[in-house]
Structure prediction request, 1146 residues.
Amino acid sequence: MSQELPPPDLSAPVSPAAAESSLRLLHRAKEGDEAALEALLARSLPRLRRWASGRLPRTARLAADTEDLVQDSIVRVLRNLRTFEIRGDGAFQAYARQAILNRIVDIHRRTERSWRHAEPLASDLPAASLSPLELAIGAENVERYERALAALREEDRQAVILRLELGYDFREIAEALGRPSPEAARVAVSRAVARLSRIMSGDDGS
Amino acid sequence: MDPERDAIEAGAEAVVDGQEPDWDGLASRADVREQTVVQQLRLLARIGAVHRSLTGFDAAGELETSPPVSAARPTADEALFEWGHLRVIEQVGAGSFGDVYRAWDLRLDREVALKLLRAGARDERWATASREAQLLARVRDPHVMTIFGVEEIDGRVGIWSEFLRGRTVADLVRSEGPLSAGEVILLGDAMCRALAAVHQSGVLHRDIKAQNVIRAQYGRYVLADFGLGLDLGARAEDDGAAGTPLYAAPELLIGGRPSVRSDLYSLGVLLFFALTGQFPVEGRSAGEIAEHHRAGRRRRLHDLRPDVPHALVEALDRALDPRPGERPSTAAAMRSALLVALGQAEVRLPQRSQRLALGLAGLALVLAAAGYLVGQRASGPTAPLPVIHFELGAPVNASMTEGSRNVAAVSPDGQRIAFVGTEPSGTTRIFLRLLRSPEIVPLAGSTGAATPFWSPDSQQLAFFADGKVKTMRVSGGPAIPLADAKDSRGGAWTPDNTILFAPEPRDGIHQVSADGGPSRPVTTLDRDRGETGHWWPSVIPGTRRFLFWVQSERQDVSGVYMGNLDGGSPVRIAGAAGSGLVADGHLLLVRDDVLTAQRFSADSGRLSGPVIPVVRDVAVTWLAQGGFSVSETGVLVYASTRTKDARQLVWYDLAGQPLGQIDGPGFFRNPELNETGDMAAVQYYTAARSEIRVYDLTRGGWFRITDGEESTENPVWSPDGQRMAFVSQRRGYGDIYVKDIRSTAPPELVWASQQDKMPTDWSPDGQWLAVVEMSASGSYDLHLVEPRAGGRRVPVAATPPHEVNGRFSPDGRRLAYITKQSDTYNVVVSSLPPDGRLRTVSTTGGFDPYWLSSERLVYLDPTGVLMEATVPLDPDARAPAPRRRFGTRVDTPGSSRNHYAVDVRGGRLLLNEPLVDPMSSAFSVITNWRGHTVQPPTER
Prediction:
């Protein structure tokens, strides 16, 4: 009797029992452990996908598959792990976020170009080329935020991204940033946010 | 402390905590230079809010992606802070008016969810909120998150409630796409029940949305978060991604007051969203949404999901009516409307069916079909025709007349179905059901009628009563007798107004003008060929020809024939068990309980092309009438062979005393209780398929565990009740799957092979499944199988006689099963691993063993008596003779895997009993048979 057994499903989420710290996974992945790579991917993708949905212009979301874009970017990040100094999950997430953002900017430029070449069809063209975040707070403000974020210290930047953008809770942030407790993480994020707001207002606190 | 510094610090903390502080107040405390910083903080708060709305860490959805949390009492070190008697462990969500935490109730030592309202308790609105929370704390409903209490401590109002693990509907739809129609009906049913309970407590919910409904353990939908009259005003000002205006009834956006009907509107939006991932009215701001409402720009559910049951579309259209007065007035009323759709089975157009539909379209067979369907709105020319499969239902205060002569007749326009029902007095008459509504009404003046059939314009019915064939307008009017028909065998009404009928069993087909006049024979019996009757005439559309059934003493003569109104000898078309019909150039015929379609040319009288199976389990009456009827529009009504199979689930104690019925009647099989005895899984047949459903014995109500297009059968719980093994045919054979029922992840394929298999039990240590597999030689063998992909498989009983129904003893060291011993099936017990010795437990035959303890088991004898046997652990010890417990109403113990399940701890058993009275609803309907096809059955 012939038996057909399916290959193990690598895309399945990590089972809770197998959960281990992202930092350990990063280190294992850097050593070339495929399973750790898969686990990292499974762990990071859902959040980053949702995050990306806020950054993709509507036109691009129609044109490009968010999933592909995000997955593609993260896979690249993971491929570059060997050349990348891992200081923690926070660094990894921030790095992945930036990689995705770069891809989005690429795509954005491309779709902008194609829109310009197209007939002016829809009256809401400008709106269509904005991302949900830009629609919500204005493109100029997003730009100011990104510039200020880039001017922040690395650890502050990670703290802001993890909390405000990726929705990490304080326990997770403590783990990702190597803080002793959730409360310590909360204080660290608050300070980072205060510094960010000063930079955004053109007052870097000096 | 420096007050300016304080303002920025406070603002930054609010941003980080996802709170909305009094920004103007903060700005006023800062100097000019700092004011611009506060402005930027405010911007950051909005950036955070936008991202939260994307990442959706509302309520419990977030927990799924978090590492596992233990439900044990936390130490003080692990706590974020304490609030009264609650030790706050972690934040799990944030909303515009409060934060949600996972916390530990130190008094009652249990896990709770705590929502701390933002801002001071002095605010009048918070006072209202806490009053309402107190009212809600009295609501006890399985679909409403239970509120334990509300208190004000240290100036903060907190509401604590049960802590639910699961995912929000928003999260589900976002990550897995729109839900199936069946799932949405279950969701709607649960939410209507929840709202009815909430409204009854005197509170409006006011914030029904996908983020506030959690799909908790076992698929229970729970309404979680209450607006408490706080949000609408607040959020409507939000111009950004705020969700609530999307759910708001139009009257609220122009200043109207919230009401039961505005809650029901929001529920309508929620269900619309669950089905489509979209909203009926969308906009970027409350103002824009209000503008769309004003202009009447709304999406139609039917356009987005043409495949969902009509009744569901109708129920949602009503709930979403912009005019509050047109909506259901109560949640219970909305629920009744939804439940009409519940009887209508899963409504997906499988890939294969789509191909068939297109194939037929290519043959120009569905030219007349575009836009025909019940209440169908204009949709694109390429939209697939909906295929809806549902039970017809039974009239109130009457049952369907026993099937021998009663086949429901659908009108040519597909709008009405006529069938014969029996009232409690014994009077039979014709009942009519409009396809678009579930209502069934008696046809006045049709007393004593049998075998109805329709006029071509669908305005009149003909039937047989008082020894005559009669006609009557369905809109009312007298029954007009046309001709004698003492004991009729059916009739048909031709487009040129001639009625063909079989007046007597031993006669040919006659014809009479529907306007009256003499009747004369059209066909005559050929006695030389043993013909004894010509029955069940039907018109071949677009021709002067007709089909009829020839009853003959000779098998090779009996069959479906074609006759001609213009004369000529009848031609035999096919041998079959009963009469056929021609529709859309196909001959429809029941073969081996399967209704089949095959291309047919009336000109040549030839069949060609493949035999396409349309639907299974279609009856042929004992008078050789095919138990189905079709309209010109493709509506198929048929009598199912399965009605005699209906069951009800009844608790008994071990002495045979009934303790109460939990559900039924319905097509249940193979009930299995979980270890704690609070969930019963069954194999549940809908009109279209078999699926596994679970009945929550404590809270009541069914829910599904799997959601695929394929049939699933034979549920078996894991000992911890967290997983379920079952059979699915998705790969063409009965393969074994295991599903983690806490997650929505797809089930894991455990054992695939080219043979049918079924799990029968799960070992107490969780390591093994007992599985029956049909061997290549055709006998059933027992295997132990590890419940994971690629796990080991060990045969335990694989001899030529069947070995089935393996049950592990509670210590896991023995296996009871059924095998054939000298022509009798008996219960035997083998040790594990088998040592070759079998102890025969039953003495006069036995089925369905079930262990009560390591040395005692019960089983059913061949007459359905529940027997109890002692099975000593010592293989050489003599066992006392089995003793009788009580006689059950299980009539055919051998025909199914298990007819009962035992709640060992509760000392009771759940019997799956046949009914005293057969199910009164005997007909099923498919709205477009051309889009419907099934696999032919393999082994019956």
Observations:
- DSSP finds 15 helices and 58 strands in chain B.
